[in-house]
């Protein structure tokens, strides 16, 4: 037993934790009213309390995860994600493993054949233009190269198709190809599906997905890969059946090369298929071959450019640092990491400008907001409430309206210049340029963000007892000394809170700099918005956003080390 001096209930009252400690100290098991051990019953009650508390905060946690954490994770992923190359050109990426850009030679015939297989599938799914747009970020001209090549890629391998069909018309029949490539179970399932589709009026079940014959991938590997791609796209994209469609020409090209590599492929089949395939294997060495590399060069000369192939190879990995390199004015080239040309190096300058102008705006808000907040906190309540409404008034006006008003005020034929000319301070032919530059951005954003500085300052100053200053003066301090030594240190938490709020808002602003900043007053956020909405380079936008996030976190950490986040207060 515990004494009254050491009894936990004497200090905290009866709690589940104290009851658990009493149950541990008791000799023998203590039982609850229902006969279960008291400790077990209390643990169950404690778990119920924690679950109830968790359920109360669950909506907030879900909201934070969905609206804040998930977008950040998605941004981090997009900044390194580069799967479009390997997914769109899987065979080409594998074939390029044996090619060396530094050799100065174009890839061999096998790489161009792999490109033909990949490109015909990508064109059928309309993915080749997306791939071209992605690679065009790295090497100008690739987008049009893929777009123009997609129009003629279907003709690659036609010479082989003509020769196979001339040898035996069975090669033109979709049913023969299905018998050659499809598994027997799929053929049976497909036949059952076709019968039901013909008999039942409202039958809407999709055709069974194509499956390859067992062992065909070992006997005819290139043909199996190309035909299964054809069958998949025919069913998924075209909503048709491979039993009714003749294969693409590149499938015939794949069959030709498989028969050259394995003339005994017919041994894996029986009946008519073995006979037709055996005859094709005997005739294949005498077929007219097609130079696929030259065919691609005839389609588009760009396929003879080493930079194009080097770019495909450099960005063939599913993940890349290319976006982050571009964010710091570097680039990933086939030869390695290089600095961008001076006329394209803009991001480091934009980051520096963003930090500098955000700090200037923050300082301007402190200089303008501190006296206003001090006045609001010292005036009678009735007067200060009226002035506080004036401080909050900008919140009731559209951001675009306020920004547009500054364009009217600051332009060379605007109100401010007209007043200066009227006062004789500025000549009419020497009006000040105060818009479309850094000055215009600083003025407009200071006006917009000033309330975010005044409100934290006011809330802190309102809690400072005026008797402290009067006491300092009664002890002989001057007005300045009493303010600087007594009042100001107590207002520092408000300055810290307002500074963090204004700086973080300023560093991410893009509407106001876009409207009044011109070419010298824009922020890095303007480029992020441009890449998201105009250039659609989401990877680069994500990388720029990630770097901006890291910079803010680092500055926040430095602020905490120098000032101390514990000194920040909202009153």
Name its key features.
elongated; 28 helices; mainly alpha; 571 residues; two-stranded antiparallel sheet; 2 strands; single chain; 4 domains; 65% helix
Give a verbal description of the structure.
With 571 residues, the protein is an all-alpha fold. The protein folds into 4 domains: 9-78, no CATH class; 87-154 and 292-339, no CATH class; 157-286, no CATH class; 347-567, MetI-like (MetI-like fold, Orthogonal Bundle), CATH 1.10.3720.10. The protein is 65% helix and 1% strand. The chain has 28 helices and 2 strands. It has helices spanning 9-12, 16-25, 38-78, 83-88, 90-95, 109-124, 128-136, 142-152, 158-167, 174-181, 184-199, 216-219, 221-236, 249-261, 271-283, 292-299, 306-314, 322-327, 347-378, 381-392, 399-410, 415-423, 438-461, 466-474, 479-507, 511-516, 524-533, 538-562, and strands at 330-333, 336-339. It has a two-stranded antiparallel sheet. A hairpin with a 2-residue loop joins strand 1 and strand 2. Helix 19 runs parallel beside helix 23 (438-461) and helix 27 packs antiparallel against helix 28. The mean pLDDT is 87.
